[in-house]
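Treating backbone geometry as a discrete language has practical consequences that deserve illustration. Part of our work consisted of pairing the sequence of a single chain with a tokenised description of its backbone. What the numbers capture is local backbone geometry rather than side-chain detail. For completeness, the protein is quoted in full, as a sequence line and a line of structure tokens:
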Amino acid sequence: MDPFETGQIRRDGGIPSASSQQEGAEDGRGAPQWDAFVTGFAANSGHSTHAVTEADETLENWASEQHVGLLEDRDEAARRVNALGEDAMLDLQSLSLTSLPRLPSEIVVLDVPFNRLTNLPDELPASLQRLDVSGNQLSSLPALPGGLRGLDVNSNRLESLPAVLPAGLQFLSANHNRLLNLPDSFPASLQFLHVSDNQLTSLPVALPAMLEFLDVSQNQLTDLPPALPASLRFLDVSQNHLTSLPEDLLTALGDGGTLVLTENPLSEQVLANLSTILGAEGYVGPTVHLSHDDESESSGTDDEQADALAETVAEWLKGNPQEDDREVLAAWQNFAEEPGAREYGLFLAKLFESVSSGNEGFRQSVANDLRQAAKNPQLRAQYFQLAWDANQSCEDRRTLTWNGMQTARLIAEVENGLYDNKARLADLIELGRVMFRMDALEATARDKAHSLASVDNVEDIDAVEVFLAYQSKLRERLGLQHVAPDMRFFQVSGVTDSDVDRAETSVRESEAAEFADYLAMDWQPWDDVLRRIAPEEHAKMQDQLIGAMGKEFDSRMEQQLAAQGLTGAEAGLVEDAKRVLGAAVRKEIAREIKGALRDKVLNEHSLAL
């Protein structure tokens, strides 16, 4: 099994809230909302099969770049781009991509969920009608194509949406982000809006006239707009801070509508009024859910799944009990209906069978993971995503998946401010070293897996075993304490003790030569912490970067062209050279400016690399 492919992940790519799942089950408007936007694209796209053009060389160069991200499978991505058919739908999901190749100009659907993208190209294809970038690490979005009709940005790091959205947008899902507010206005065509699990304190006064479905659960809303669209048929405002409701809310939703109000501090007067209205003889209006008991007829199967998850969590916690574990267990009982919870529960149960389960440190790590995930919905969502296909394979695949979860936990700790205290900069740097070693080790493992694949009679060699072999055998020597201490099938990995020794040497040599640049330029958590603990210096650095992309960039580019003997060459040749050389020039400038800030911060805190 190739560790870069996860075929079990849902095709809708989203992580809807429990209430939106319920709604989909009740009236068919859940995941099909998204999938419906694919219908007709292939037949009506008007584009021909992707032709072989000069772009092929650019794609090949992108695929062969060195020092790409952990488990990043650019070869598979390039294969999918080259295989683009008449339907003009490009699927690059679950390839651990840290950047996208140049996208074919004719695509109408782009699916890139569950990768490691921190940004998107400044210009997306104008033909694009549906875009799914859920499950990435995006903090902002570029200008979106004017013809876009469906957008899924679930489970990213977005603090805002573009102020101007495409005029024909019909579906927008931005659950599990960091949105502080919404645009003042949305396209009038918008029918479905999902913004659950954000940090919204208010909604725009005017919502789209055609809006039918609105999920703003798990936010910080204190009130609702006085008027809602007449078209609205489903509204989930559960888990907010609402104490009152608009007087005509029930009338606005009308007969056949659904209103979910659970877990809001509604005043006694509001609750009494609702009770009177809903209990009146001949009541005609929306179905209203005021408590979890109202939301659905809980089946025995649902109860059993909740109990099974809680029991598995309890089993992991009992080996290292802590004071708050009762609250942790209660929380996990409530998570049983979240998307992926069942698969994650099965994953936890199967971890008991792993070769590392007898290790006390490993058991404590699993228990601490469960405690942290109980308090961190975004980390929990990542765990649930990662567990989707791990249960379909061998024990070592689950162990490698667990290692990936530990990396996600460490990064989440940085995001949550654990290292924002300047006294912890040394610890942050050490964590950066660990992440660098993991990346470097991944490159070695990839080369080894490819070399094994080129040898005859190795059909049974599993790339998962190759990757895990290097992590497991170098855990102590490279200080990779967050990964599992052992694996089951090292003997069939094809990795020898000599391979392990060479890998350690290679990683340490790379670290000595490249870690300083990695910290300053490539490791986003370092940049995030500097932005928070040294905001003025960080802002100055950003201004310098922007300023250097003008005359300084042009000057250095001219020097590079002269060095290549291209001064005065024909325009087409010069433009091709600029595309190749421009990236190197930008990287050189960034190395100098970001490196200067790195050195300044290190010197101020008497630290050295």
